[in-house]
Amino acid sequence: MIRTLLALDGALIRGALALVLAAEHDIRVVAEVDRDDNLDQALWTQLPDVAVVDADLIAVDNPAPTGPCPLLVLADPRRPRGLYDLLCARRAVGILGNDVSPQRVVDGVRRLARGEPLVDADLVVAALGPTGPLTGREADVLDLAATGSPVSEIARRLSLSPGTVRNHLGRIKRKTGARTRIEAVRVAQNAGWI
Questions:
Q1: Which contacts qualify for 54-58: CB closer than 8 Å, 24 or more apart?
Q2: pTM of this prediction?
Q3: Which tens digit of pLDDT belongs to each residue from 108-143?
Q4: Can you name the residues that pair with 72 across neighbouring β-strands?
Q5: Beta bridge pairs of residue 73
């Protein structure tokens, strides 16, 4: 039996995938984790064989959850930033687009449980490609700004001073041609930079 943890944003999607996986004779969903839950803690508490994780739930400041099992990361093909760091940081990781069929996720869980590699070639190419005009740190700042975090929270999460965060936001606005932080987020998201 493959013990599987689901860490996906949104109860509807997570619940639907849990039903699909539970219908398989060799897979058992042992836990479900939401955006507000601690992924690392759940991985060590539940000790799954495989964890299916939404790429957006992997924190900007912790790109490699330290759990004891392989991760099957479901990523938005339009926003591959951060996947390269994840591939480099973790030995046991599989990556699929979040638009794949449920059967591909089922197959992916089985492959990772057997220790086989699993990588969507198009996502890897996109992850290795250019990420637009933003530096990695600027993209990290804008990712957190997109969640509505104030400057002080962004500074704390990224171990920066508030002044440095404001400087990054100023450069981001210039590079995106935006007048406001919200407009910069929209431009960067539409371009796939964040």
A1: 54/7, 54/8, 54/9, 54/98, 55/79, 55/82, 55/83, 55/86, 55/98, 56/9, 57/7, 57/8, 57/9, 57/33, 58/82, 58/86
A2: 0.67
A3: 999 999 999 888 877 776 666 655 788 878 888 998
A4: 52, 94
A5: 53, 95
Q: Are 40 and 65 in contact (CB under 8 A)?
A: yes
Distance CA 77, CA 183 (A): 22
CB atoms within 10 A of CB 69: 20
- pLDDT tens profile 162-172: 999 999 999 99
Q: Tokens 């171990």 label which residue?
A: 159
Distance (Å, rounded) from C-alpha 34 to C-alpha 179? 33
What is the residue type of 114? R
The residues that bridge with 29 in the sheet, in sequence order, are: 4
Residue pair 67/43 in contact by the 8 Å Cβ criterion: yes
